Amino acid sequence: MDATLPASALARRSKEGPTPLFGAYGIVKRFGSFTANDGVDLEIRAGEIHALLGENGAGKSTLMKILYGLLEPTEGVVTHKGDIVQLPNPEAARRLGIGMVFQHFSLCENLTVAENIALVMPKDLSGRALADRIARLGIDYGLHLDPDRPVWSLSAGERQRIEIVRCLLQDPSLVILDEPTSVLTPGEAEVLFTVLERLREEGRALLYISHRLDEVRRLCVRATILRGGKVVGACNPREETARSLAAMMVGSAVREVTPREGGAVGRERLRLDRLSLPAPDLHATALHDVSLSVAGGEILGIAGIAGNGQAELFAALSGESRAPEPDSVRLDGKPVGALGINARRRLGAGFVPEERNGHAAAPLMSLSENALLSRYPTASLTRFGLIRLGAARDLAKRVIEAFDVRKAGPDPAAGTLSGGNLQKFVVGREIQAEPGVLVINQPTWGVDAAAAAHIRQAVIDLAARGTAILVISQDLDELFEIAGSIAVLHDGTLSPAVPAGETSREAIGLLMGGSSDHAPPVADVAHPREPMPSPAHAH
Amino acid sequence: MRLDLVPRTRRSPVLDILSSALAFVAAVLIGGIAVAALGVSPTAAFVTYFVTPLSEVWSLQEIALKAAPLALIATGLAFCYRANLWNIGAEGQFVVGGLAGGWVGVATQGAEGFTLWILPAMLIVGTLAGIAFAMIPAILKVRLGVSEILTSLMLVYVAQLLLDYMVRGPLRDPAGYNFPQSVGFDAAARLPYLMDGETLHAGVLVAFVAVVLATVVLARTLFGFEVRVVGASPRAARFAGFSDARLTLAVFAISGGAAGLAGISEVAGKIGQLQPEISPGYGFTAIIVAFLGRLSPPGILIAALVIALTTIGGEGAQIDLRLPLDLTRAFQGLLLGLVLGADVFARYHVTLVPGGPSSRTVP
């Protein structure tokens, strides 16, 4: 094992400061002809929360996976306290004290908290001993978990705690967090920040990956910014504005979303009348008496934490689930509750589901086939049952051009596009049809800042042309940016819509948490309620 | 040393073919070792298996006659399997198609006058019977959520026993000395031979047309698109407004109809009467053929020919070299395993990353 750094890495080491806890020097990772990381240097010191910023596709995930032993770099070295180390697998990374909290939880819904944790622990640690350690961590860090609750009954915040506890049980010196607040309420995020500060004070290093620049500015004093696989800057986020950080990530000033000025609101185009739907399966949410109304030119935002009935509401609107009473869903006054998705499309509605890969688009199929997917009922793409391949390609091309979709090759498989580009494609595919009613679930989920701005602007412009738009989103900033009025979905019940100008993030945040009477069942007397979002939360 | 697998962004047909060819070569090499271990010269075995059957007119016809039902059934199954529905009962649908179509042949035996309608009627009845028999597992699946894998498989035995009963009972040739077989069909109830004095019959053309038709349907029609989307991304298919239930019925009808047509083609072609055994397991072998051909109709045609070739070659090897017929079965299984394994090369960039395992430890 080499104890000394090669000259190339030495030259890249920063001259001042103590030896970093972990260093990555000259990291290059190629996938075929594509270079995901191109000479990346990163130094992480003990006792700091280091932010890693970048758009989707900037190479953050690749770098993270290299540090966690999931990928091996094509070139470059990783050091631990100045010594070069090899990380052939996550096991090796864990032995070096590297832990990771993934963006997408890998939990078994039907197992209990303790069982889920035991799955990844050494075999000799189980049963009572493990439950005790979970309880002790809970007391030490405020990560309260009931070891015997099944995971399906937990909120996203509680699920994330399982991931964090799993990680902390291995006493890591470096914790990598990938977009940790993306599924949390403002209140849950506050709890997380307290835990992270605590970990930092204990002298652990944290690598914090997030799109939310406010959080980064609040938590971190050092940030490394990636763009196109290269480090384009390092800064103290507290000395920057969210806007200047975003500009560094994108490489140019972020396009500002122009809000619509006043604008005439037309007649009612979409209406739900006391829509109730039973939960389709054990882990789904039933809808109770949901009523709403969207007029032409209006954007109604539905806020809420994931899993409170958003998917079920979307399915009821799109026709993927039929309503028990036909007139509980109306399009332009017509009862459509009993109609399928294509009949509703023919009445002028368009739909963008939350999940890009596998729901809005078939990832293994080409973009032109994906244009066909939702547009064949209305865009005359078939003749006598035969697909008009040329027409489908033309349609895809028009969407690609209008929405600046970046892709490799003339008609690539949808799954090969980056998240932001595929989202632009699936949103653009529906907007290009000039629908009278558009329903979008999580329009910019996991999408980079530039693409998100593009999509939001397109939605606002569509409303200006008279379309009634319903946006379901977990991102409050987004809703306040584009929606005229906002309602909150909690546990399958929709609050009355209020004009966005007459409410606040805090008021909406309270409703998202279920106000006061909708607390999740508390299994343990010692299990405290989470604090509500503090009014001091920077905004 | 380690293998890196990087997914390819697009599947290339050239690589698909190359990887299959590679798998075939590997299977032949491994087969050669097995043959040598049995004390037979691998070269002689290779000639008997792969060269002799291709060098004689009668064996070429035999290959085509064996490949035709395999290709026809497998093409129908490809619709099911593409849509992630598992019809394992093509053998039963084949038998029922042969039985029902053959019954028309038995009933019209000795008919005088205008008899041109008999053969088309047999083919239609056989196809419809195959469809009807496939509807049992399809409807059970759609209505009650019963696993189509189990029901379609179990119905194979029902079909076989039904045929057995019919040829021993109601359809037995009264003048047949109690042999369990029906009367021989009239010429009007037989598929015509393509060449005088040879064995090749029109059933081969039926299979070929079906393969061409299926290629067009899968690639160019909205229905083919529906089949592909339902299999690849079921939620996206629902988003596209495609109905699971309707598609389940449709693909079972296609695969059942193809198997039924293959069954009556075999009965009205090669056999010429009903008997207790009308299939040497075509319905099951066709499952292998469908996957060997990667569920694409042209690939299935090639796979059916390869399987037919090894079967005919295996018969030759049994006679000439005293190699067991089980060796042929083992070879076909080996070939399927290798072709599916070689898919890795078509789906991923495979690179060998140098560096000994010793350097991969952690301090």
Describe the 3D structure:
The complex is a heterodimer of chains A (539) and B (363). By secondary structure, chain A is of the alpha/beta class. Chain A has three domains: 7-250, 3-Layer(aba) Sandwich (Rossmann fold), CATH 3.40.50; 265-348 and 435-539, P-loop containing nucleotide triphosphate hydrolases (Rossmann fold, 3-Layer(aba) Sandwich); 362-432, no CATH class. Chain A contains 17 helices and 23 strands. Chain A has helices at 7-12, 60-67, 90-95, 113-120, 127-141, 156-168, 186-201, 213-219, 242-250, 310-318, 341-346, 367-375, 389-402, 419-431, 449-464, 476-482, 505-512; strands at 22-31, 34-44, 49-53, 75-80, 83-85, 98-101, 174-178, 205-209, 222-227, 230-235, 268-277, 287-295, 299-303, 329-331, 334-335, 349-352, 382-383, 386-387, 437-441, 468-472, 485-490, 493-494, 498-499. The longest helix of chain A is centred in the middle third of the chain and has 16 residues, at 186-201. Mean pLDDT of chain A is 83; it is low at 516-539. Chain B is mainly α. In chain B, strands 1-2 form a two-stranded antiparallel sheet. In chain B, helix 1 packs antiparallel against helix 13, helix 11 runs parallel beside helix 13 (325-347) and helix 12 (297-320) packs antiparallel against helix 13 (325-347). Residues 356-363 of chain B have low confidence and may be disordered. Chains A and B meet through helix 11, helix 12 and strand 18 of A and strand 1, helix 8 and helix 9 of B. Chain B: Its main location: membrane. Chain B: It is found in: Cell membrane.
